[in-house]
Amino acid sequence: MMVIRLAMNRGKKLDWLSWLGLIAAILIPLAMFNIDGYAGLLQRLMFAISFVWVAREFSAPSTRASIPGNARR
Question: How many domains, in total, are found in the chain?
Fold first, then answer.
């Protein structure tokens, strides 16, 4: 979903939270393999970032109306 969100924002305001979520979804699991002692903490950090992203997506209906296919009839 984050990749789709980033692709749809071309030419618009930079979406820092989606970029942070995308980077976290890639780097944190890789770091969990290398840093065993902090794997649980890193996992919680990844879930916290994704929770904030999902909460923002569901709380902004005005921006979702501009996405093709989501227009109200």
Answer: 1
Identify whether 24 is part of a domain.
Answer: yes
Q: Would the pTM count as exceeding 0.70?
A: no
Specify the residue for token string 């879930």: 47
φ, ψ of residue 72 in degrees (nearest 5)? -80, 145
Domain span at residue 53? Answer: 2-6+15-59
Element (H, E) at 70: none
Tokens for 33?
A: 């393999």
The answer to whether 40 and 5 are in contact (CB under 8 A) is no
Task: Please list the alpha-helical segments (H only) found in the chain.
Answer: 2-8, 16-34, 39-59, 61-64
Kindly state the average pLDDT of the residues 5-17: 68
pLDDT tens profile 38-53: 999 999 999 999 999 8
